[in-house]
Amino acid sequence: MALQVLFHLEFSPDDDPSEAFDLICDSFGAPESVREFARMLIAGVWSKRGELDKVIAQASRNWRIDRMTRVDRSILRMAVFEMMFVPDIPAKVSLDEAVELGKRSTASWITSTIRQSTRISRRLGREKMANNARYNPQELELKWQSFWENNNLFKCKEDTSKEKYYLLEMFPYPSGKIHIGHVRNYTIGDVVARYKRMCGKNVLHPMGWDAFGMPAENAAIENNTHPARWTYDNIAAMKAQLKRMGFSYDWDREVTTCNPDYYRWEQLIFLKMYERGLAYKKKTFVNWCDKCQTVLANEQVEEGCCWRHPDVEVSIKEMDSWFLKITHYAEEILDHCDKLPGWPERVITMQRNWIGKSHGAIIRFPMVQSDEVIEVFTTRQDTLFGATFMCLAPEHPLVKQIVRGRPQEREVLEFADRTLKMDRFLRTAEFTAKEGVFTGRH
Ligand SMILES: [Zn+2]
Question: What's the gap in Å between 333 CA and the centre of ligand 1?
């Protein structure tokens, strides 16, 4: 009824609201108790419409109030009026009512506008309604962030009455400054943490620093400082930035991987793995920069040169390296691929391919004029008699040995050296044409 009267007044603003009201109420045959409430609503909305329109205009900057449909405008005014001036109607009821009324037109827009209006009216307080509201992050965010901190709002305590929820995004490398990738990543996690907390879960949302990294040493040399100092200064700066973002971390749980109180556990795990033969040493080929005096990851080699020293060609060094025997767990991980509910099939397939389990046999080929044997793994031993040659990878330990003192020695070693410098992924990729040279051995 009230909507109909307000809608009518939109067309004929000079009509007397109470007269229009009586007319429409009669046609509805409404009882007096309902009339009373509707009369109050209409009188209120109509007399305060200037004030209400200001709130609505602030809440939906992209819409102009004079360009809304009359129905939308009337619904909005009614809901905002109830929210601001009728304290015994909860905002949720006004909102539901408005959405119900607006369903045939633009319910989602009305919902968001009303929600905004609720926020704005709460912030301003009713008497300040007419003032222009401005969002002041320095004032508002710092106020609430210090309130959260002083009240230990995000501290996670043991509480068996609540369901546990552990949320860890990832620990950043303390490079010195938070970048927009961090902001994006940690904002997504924070939204989840806050949502789960609101759902009544006991949320543990920690933060820490992946603080052992090769760049630390080089940065320290460049800045003429100690790597520890450089690292801890960076952590302090980045922590301040994360705090200013207002993320809901329990900072009492902070870990820093270069702290002895953290890495003693890594060392313990490593020793346990070593004792059980799961950590072992093996010679392997690594990328080496003479200027950095360090090993480089494949991603740090750019067009054959060091990423930090474009004038220094990366050499391939054979070095002792530590390996973890993850193949030992291939079967177990594979079995568990079938026990991951809700995982996309695509990801499960990638996981299976990565584990790369295949059934086959190791064939041992004896070498002519030598005691050496070359072992080849094949899944197709039935095709063995069709084999015409076999290839050794450039890093194969036999390569140097079997060409020693032979006419092919120089050509083979040069080829191996050149191939080893190629990107390992590209070298073995399907689309790369395969090259090789004859070793002279059979
Ligand atoms: Zn370098």
Answer: 37
